[in-house]
Amino acid sequence: MNRVHCYRLLGLSSTAGLEEIKASYRRLARQYHPDFNQENPQAQNHFIRLTEAYQCLKDIFPSQEIKLPNIQEPNIKPQNINSRKKAPNTSQKNSKSNYKQPFSRANYTPNADQDQLLKWQCYEKLREIMKEKRFARAIALVEGLSYRLPFDPEVRQWQAIVYQHKGRQLLQETQLEKAKTYFNKALRTDPYNRLLVAEIQKDLAKVKKATG
Questions:
Q1: In a domain, 205, yes or no
Q2: pLDDT tens profile 98-137
Q3: Is 189 helix (H, G, I), strand (E, B) or coil?
Q4: How many helices (H) and strands (E) does the chain have?
Q5: What is the dihedral of CA 136, 184, 181, 179, to 10 degrees?
Q6: Which residues are within 8 A (CB) of 188 and not within 5 positions of it... i.e. 6 or more apart?
Q7: What is the C-alpha to C-alpha distance for residues 50 and 24, in angstroms, rounded to an integer?
């Protein structure tokens, strides 16, 4: 996707800055989000193209990349969304189980607020997409969710894991530079998840070995 087409998709001129790009993407992503357009498959495809365009244009501004929040408890298991307390990371064993099965079934209640209901609806879709190994769609979905809930540690964790799986897919296809890019994205997204970081370091070692 060339940059001119990316700007057009977002309804912007080629002189638009990063803040304009982010604002336009947020507005359009809400408009075309799959959960608000379940009867319109074209909306879902457009949502994915919007996310790809945003990612392409965001890479033009590496020095202005948004800093990630300092998340102290990244390994949080899915829980009832009416609870305001985070589940404590009580043991490495629990964290490992959470990492190995990041998209196990979660429960939520029908009387939760709109953002949290959206979160768990996206979660269920994400589980299905990941099982089918449609990682490009998974990325589009979880990135759209992360802009809706930018400080949610569970969403950050899901996002990092999706990036890692995309990186592994690219590694198998010997697209080494792209694989490295996605592994590094995963590290930046969830840098305090020690188990995830350890796994990605192994993945990066494989990339290094493959490049000689």
A1: yes
A2: 444 455 444 444 444 677 788 888 888 888 999 898 998 9
A3: helix
A4: 9, 0
A5: -70
A6: 68
A7: 10
Which pTM does this prediction carry?
Answer: 0.53
* One domain for residues 165 and 119: yes
State the residue for tokens 């057009």: 8
Structural domain tally of the chain? 2
- Closest by CA to 161, choosing from 114, 132, 195, 110, is 195
Measured distance CA(14)–CA(56) in Å, rounded: 13
Which whole-number Å values give the CA distances from 101 to 10, 90, 153, 158, 171, in the listed order? 35, 17, 16, 11, 21
CB 203 within 8 A of CB 183: yes
Which of 22, 91, 87 is closest to 57 using CA atoms? 22
Separation between Cα atoms, residue 94 and residue 73, nearest integer Å: 13
Task: Give the structural domain span for 132.
Answer: 92-211
Q: Does residue 37 form part of some domain?
A: yes
